[in-house]
Amino acid sequence: MIPAARVQAAIELLDTIIPAARSKGAPADRIIAEYFRTRRYAGSKDRRAVRDLVYQAIRLCGPVPETGRAAMLAVAGQDAAIAALFDGSPHGPTPKVDGEVVAKTGLAPKWLATALRASGLGGPEIAALLDRAPLDIRVNALKADCATIALPETGEPLSAPQALRFAAGTQVEQWDAFAQGLIEVQDLGSQLIIDALPVAPGDTIVDLCAGGGGKTLALAAKLGNAVSIVAADTDKRRLGNLAPRAERAGAQIDHIVLLDPMREMRALGNWAGKADVVLVDAPCSGSGTWRRSPEGRWRLDPAELKRLNALQDHVLDIGSYLVKPGGTLVFVTCSMLDAEGTDRIAAFHTRHPGWEAQGLTLPLGRTHGAGSRLEPLHDGTDGFFFASLRSPC
Predict the structure, then answer these.
(1) What is the DSSP letter of 149?
(2) Are 175 and 203 a contacting pair, CB within 8 Å?
(3) Is 334 a catalytic residue?
(4) 3-class SS at 294?
């Protein structure tokens, strides 16, 4: 592909990604993969270059662009080399015309930028949410040790005991160590939160929003399988990935429980009031993971945020029913919005008086309201809010 054709391909992709974001459809990475699946003529360098152009445009445009062309014209406005490719070349974009719409740039849609600032983030902190993230792995302590594991590349040791960091795009899932269950892809922030949980051998732990099981597997490794873990979720597809992942990792998960939305306690009744620790890694906006999925800013609107808040309150209430007297409920969201953090804890205390906040000790992060926060700018992690609550005895 000639350079101009790469720009045109990026425009075509953005024309699919933009409406998908508005309608909460397929994510950008899936759309890009499907696009090139039917265009075998594009080589690896072409695919990489087009992908980089797409994400450059997504990161640059805070408000949702009207079209892919408008988004790429915004890129051209800041990059003379890209602007020169709007020259009418075969398979390339047509030249820009006077008065043509150019997408607005910025960190996020106006309402969302306002909400982030109201949540205690300044411009540099918000901008860091859009940087390209490195790739972190967790060395599986059930099978290997971070200090002695042999990998095709040398990773940077991090503050979590089993964490290593590699450059973005490192193909760790193609390594033998991944196939053998010696490593898992997991952000440093997730690893630190799991390391800080007040769990001990013999405990019963419920991972209430387990998803594909990243934190579930980390819990099993942290305690050397000497705990009883219940992994539960309403997402059948994601939860279905947990059993093969656990087998590969050598992790013992005692119960994998598929939940019926809004009727979760029908499947969880056996553990009501019996769990030492309940982890609620709640569904959220994912604003702390925009480094990986920057089009998430385009997917979120006030109505969706309100829906997520109601769901977060719901799963917190379920978690409270499962915790035994004196046990611990841990709430985590990969969000920088107070509406998905401190506000949810305040609302929980209103509904459940008598629960006490308790700190979790991490080498990174800082106190934020009744919990703590990890941020890309200050901590080099994805963005997280987390809080630990002790049940009345």
Answers:
(1) -
(2) no
(3) yes
(4) coil
CB 334 within 8 A of CB 384: yes
Distance CA 21, CA 42 (A): 25
Q: What are the backbone dihedrals phi and psi of residue 137, each rounded to the nearest 5 degrees, phi first?
A: -125, 155
Q: Is the pLDDT of residue 66 over 90?
A: yes
Q: Which residue has the tokens 């101009």?
A: 4
Which residues, 6 or more positions from 226, have their beta carbon under 8 angstroms from its beta carbon?
Answer: 201, 202
∠ at Cα 99 (97, 101), nearest 5°?
A: 95
pLDDT digits (tens, 9 = 90+) for 172-224: 999 999 999 999 999 999 999 999 999 999 999 999 999 999 999 999 999 99
Q: Are 170 and 178 within 8 A, CB to CB?
A: no
Q: What is the pLDDT of residues 264-276, one digit of tens each?
A: 999 999 999 999 9
Which of 146, 209, 334, 393 is the catalytic position?
334
Give the helix ranges, DSSP H, for 38-118: 44-60, 68-76, 80-83, 110-118
